[in-house]
Amino acid sequence: MKKIIFLHHSTGKVIWRGDTGKYINKLTGRSDVLKYFKNYNRKNGADLSIEERIFPRKEPYGWKNYPFDYYNIWVRNAGEKPYMNEPTLEMLTKEYEVIVFKHCYPVSRISEDTGAPDINSDIRSIQNYKLQYNALKSKMHEFPSTKFIIWTPAVMTRNQLSEGEAFRTLEFYKWLTGEWKEKGDNIFIWDFYKYETEGGLYLADKYAEGPANSHPNREFAAKVTPLFCKFTIDVVNGIIE
Fold this sequence. Notes:
CATH topology: Rossmann fold
Oligomer: single chain
Strand order of the largest sheet: 2-1-3-4-5
Radius of gyration: 17 Å
CATH architecture: 3-Layer(aba) Sandwich
Number of strands: 7
Order of helices and strands: EHHHEHHEHEHEHEEH
């Protein structure tokens, strides 16, 4: 069995459910991701297992899953013991062959750089993101038998994001998918930003729960969830390098 873990908050939950209603998911545990993997296993005689986990949880760590927080838990506080009840990579890689993680959409509220980057700062800026992502890449490379899938940043609606923040998110996105990504390593990037923006700067209005709600809607999830599942399976099978 190949075991996959998907670490997320609320936007990830929308994609996990797909076209399955939130109340059906809550009552029965059904989701489009689980359905997709079940059908894939049945048709291909495969044994892939995927599960979800809120990471980090609201208590005690706090509802924050930005570059600083992954760096803080997995790099700054690495080891065989959990940090504030959250598993480190030393722990997760012993149980899962594939680790998928993402950031919630406030990751796109990026402040202007100050010229004094600080890897240990939770200020959301490109200069800090780059230091934290480079440290995360080095950490993930310590586990070459584990495959990591990172989502490009979720973005917000035009009503919730300034133009400057939107352009800085685009800049970070281009750096992440360009300079930061190394060919042939154990890290893979799923381009969520591309699907949300369709070439623009913001979460397209037609894909949002509302102008003031930057969660993607059910229609978007129904379209994108199968693409996420296929990408993940292709990574497992070595089709994507």
